[in-house]
Every structure is written in C-alpha cells, then in structure tokens.
C-alpha cells in the first residue's frame, strides 16, 4: 500500500507574540494537535469559521511557519523540519493557492512574465518556457490574448486562473487551496471550482481544500475535517458528515448554509445557533473549546477535554455526543427542558 500523499499528526503551531523579556503573554495556539491524512488523488476539505487555524495549517505544511510540535509527512517522508533538499521537493511538489488573487501577482509583470518566473526557478530549459507558458494558460481556460496583459486588466476570476496556472507550472502533486474562491463573485466561484475539479482529474492532483463556504464542499471533497480554535472537532467521509453531522459545531455550521435549492434542504440539520463569537486562541476555553458557545454543553464539558470518539467512519471530539442516546436529538430536548425549568 502506498503512503498517503499528506499525513499530519498532532501538528501544533503556537505563535509566540512576546516582543521583549518583560512581556509574558501566553502563545496563540493557532493549531493545537491536529491530525489529517489525504490520499493520492483525493480532496480533503478543511472547514471552520474564520480564526479556526485553517490557513496556519496550510502555511505550516508548506514551511512558511515552523511547526512547534507534531509531524508532517509527504509521501511517507518526514518533512516537519525539512532539510535543504527536502525543501526543494516541498517547493515544487506542494503549492499553495491563496484566497486573494491580486496580492499574489506582481502588478508590474505581464501574465507571461509571471508564469515564466517559476519555470526558470525550477530549471525548465529556456527554449521550452514559451510553450509551457502557453500550455499552462490554456489549461486554466485562458487564451493567448492574456499573455501580455497586466494583472489590473484581468477580472478576479481570471487572476485566480493565472494563480492556479502558476501553481501548476512546477508540476506539483499536492495543492493547498486556501479559500481559492472566497474573494470572487458567486458566478465565478463555480467556474473556478469546475476548473479545479477538471485539473484534479487530468493531472491526478491531491487537494487540501480550505474553505468556510460549505455549499461547495459536499460535491467537491471526499473527506471533510471540521476545525474550531486550533482543533479538529469532527472528521470523516464528506457524505457522512453532511448526512448525519454529529458534533454540535458541525451541526451549527451546516445548518447555516444558505438555502439555494430544494435538495439543499435534505442535509440541513436541526441545530440551535452557537452563542457569541469565536474567542481568541490565546485564551482558549478550558475543557471543550466550544463549551461557552455550545447549546448542548454540560458541566463536564467545561472541565474535561473531550477524547475523540470513533462513530462508524467518523471521528468526533465531543463529550456530550453519545451514540447510544441517538446523538443530540434526545440531548437537545433534555437541554431545553433544564433551561426552561431554571428560568
Ligand atoms: N503570524 C501570526 N502571529 C500571531 N497569531 C497569528 C499569526 N497567524 C495567525 N495567527 C492567529 O492564529 C489564529 C488562526 O488564524 P488562521 O490560521 O488565519 O485562521 P483561519 O484561516 O481559519 O481563519 C487566529 O487567531 C490568528 O489571529
Ligand atoms: Mg484563513
């Protein structure tokens, strides 16, 4: 059996933001012990509200940040603290596509030049570069007429196509897509998703797809991991997560997907909304990190950190979820009853 393309074990990224010896602020625990696996040619969606730590996961995988704990393996090889030659492999095999298509393109470079730079950097022969630039542009659905344009002459969707072409220039195996459509108009988002899907099939790419837009996840991702305040709360096959979400956080996220068609109704779970806002990961709540916002929280949830339970193919990190008590339907009633009594 071949090793997964990406394997992350108990990954931690704590940011120390103290600027002098006199400061003693606790670290920002942006990523706090997460584990993920992505097999070849598959897509894992990493979802969760803003501030959950999703971008930090991707940036730590690609070594923009140094991991403060845990393990990252690429095709079975430990790349957590990469050696020089491993860094070269990471830089060509793993590519990160950012949310904002504008900030990644040099405004003073034509598209042709922007696409040529990574080819030069990875040693593609000079006489092959022209052809490769044209191929890459074509691959992302843009014609030759864009070659000598500047970024400001392109729409957001076109710029994101150029960014995807640039990422593909070095023939990567794994794309870390960090909210690749969030900055685009809704009509353009679907086209970029279609493009990513086609490219995955043509080039047998593996994706870590970060998003807080859940409406695309169900049809796009094989597996889904739900992240909150640096931890994974629920993880498993996308279909199972959407059909019967178990964690109160997942339930709340899924219940807030805007209704766009009748079929969407099918998988919208009943859920009470979460209370309040996401706290700072510098002062993450004790026990279960969700407990101050969770409609199902018990006293135990505020004191004890939840273990991960395996329910069929899904891992769920919640104390209040009990499979034998049919999840939360019964619990929901119980919680409501007590709250009415105490009022
Ligand atoms: N370089 C940094 N220094 C300090 N804190 C950071 C840094 N980068 C991210 N954070 C913090 O880490 C948390 C997670 O951020 P991020 O990974 O961007 O979340 P997401 O992508 O899910 O919105 C946030 O609270 C953010 O403020
Ligand atoms: Mg982010």
From TrEMBL:
Q: Name one GO biological process term.
A: peptide transport
Q: Which UniProt keywords apply?
A: ATP-binding, Nucleotide-binding, Transport
- What are the boundaries of the region Disordered? 258-291
Any GO MF annotation of the entry: ATP hydrolysis activity
Checking InterPro entries in the record gives: AAA+_ATPase (IPR003593), ABC_transp_ATP-bind (IPR050319), ABC_transporter-like_ATP-bd (IPR003439), ABC_transporter-like_CS (IPR017871), Oligopep_ABC_C (IPR013563), P-loop_NTPase (IPR027417)
Where are the compositionally biased (Basic and acidic residues) regions? 266-275
Q: ABC transporter domain: from which residue to which, for each copy?
A: 6-254
One Pfam match, given by its short name, reads ABC_tran
Q: Which CDD domains match?
A: ABC_NikE_OppD_transporters
Q: Which NCBIfam families match?
A: oligo_HPY
Tell me what this protein is called: Peptide ABC transporter ATP-binding protein
Naturally occurring in which organism (per UniProt)? Halonotius pteroides
């Amino acid at each position: 059996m071949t090793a997964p393309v990406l394997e992350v074990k108990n990954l931690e990224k704590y940011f120390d933001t103290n600027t002098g010896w006199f400061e003693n602020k606790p670290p920002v625990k942006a990523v706090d012990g997460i584990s993920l696996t992505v097999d070849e040619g598959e897509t894992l969606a990493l979802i969760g509200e803003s501030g959950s730590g999703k971008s930090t996961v991707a940036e730590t995988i690609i070594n923009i940040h140094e991991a403060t704990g845990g393990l990252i393996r690429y095709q079975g090889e430990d790349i957590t603290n990469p050696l020089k030659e491993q860094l070269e492999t990471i830089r060509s095999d793993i590519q990160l596509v950012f949310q904002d298509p504008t900030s990644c393109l040099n405004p003073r470079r034509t598209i042709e030049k922007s696409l040529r730079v990574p080819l030069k950097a990875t040693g593609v022969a000079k006489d092959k570069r022209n052809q490769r630039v044209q191929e890459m542009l074509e691959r992302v659905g843009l014609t030759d007429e864009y070659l000598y344009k500047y970024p400001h002459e392109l729409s957001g969707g076109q710029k994101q196509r150029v960014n995807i072409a640039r990422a593909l220039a070095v023939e990567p195996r794994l794309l870390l897509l960090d909210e690749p459509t969030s900055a685009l108009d809704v009509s353009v988002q679907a086209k970029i998703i279609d493009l990513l899907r086609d490219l995955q099939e043509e080039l047998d790419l593996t994706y870590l797809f970060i998003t807080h837009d859940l409406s695309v996840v169900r049809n796009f991702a094989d597996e889904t991991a739900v992240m909150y305040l640096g931890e994974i709360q629920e993880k498993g096959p996308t279909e199972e997560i959407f059909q019967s979400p178990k964690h109160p956080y997942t339930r709340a996220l899924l219940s807030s997907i805007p209704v766009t068609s009748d079929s969407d109704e099918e998988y919208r779970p009943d859920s009470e909304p979460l209370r309040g806002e996401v706290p700072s990961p510098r002062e993450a709540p004790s026990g279960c990190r969700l407990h101050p916002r969770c409609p199902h929280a018990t006293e135990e949830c505020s004191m004890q950190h939840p273990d991960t339970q395996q329910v069929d193919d899904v891992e769920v990190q919640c104390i209040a979820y009990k499979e034998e008590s049919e999840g939360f339907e019964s619990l929901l009633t119980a919680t409501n009853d007590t709250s009415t009594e105490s009022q």
